[in-house]
Design goal:
The protein is an alpha+beta fold and about 100 residues long. Helix content is about 30%, strand content about 35%. It contains three helices and four strands, in the order H-E-H-E-E-H-E. The protein has a four-stranded antiparallel sheet, with helices on one face. Strand 2 and strand 3 form a beta hairpin. The relative contact order is 0.28.
């Protein structure tokens, strides 16, 4: 959009407010291993204190594709969650959908 509309495109800012939440969906690719799903849930729910709405997984040839929908209070919180998930053993890719 920036190449087509130039200076008319502005970055979205989501101010952090305790009572406001924004849904975010991460698509995660990881090497399958024992407790991978437990580690993902632990990092998001327990360590970061975020609420998970849904989680789906599909494993093919020991490669896990996982889609997790959860809620954040700001863009900074989303970026922090992405960094935490990248640090989980076996996680290869984290995309924000």
């Amino acid at each position: 959009m920036a190449s087509k509309y130039g200076d008319n495109v502005l970055p979205a800012e989501l101010p952090e407010e305790e009572n406001t939440i924004y849904p975010v969906v991460f698509r995660i690719t990881a090497i399958d291993r024992h407790h991978l799903l437990v580690d993902l849930i632990e990092h998001i729910s327990n360590n970061l204190g975020l609420n998970i709405e849904s989680l789906t997984t599909n494993t093919v040839d020991e490669l896990v594709n996982c889609t997790i929908c959860f809620y954040v209070h700001s863009v900074g919180e989303m970026i922090n969650a992405k960094k935490h998930i990248y640090n989980i053993n076996g996680v290869d890719e984290v995309k924000v959908m």
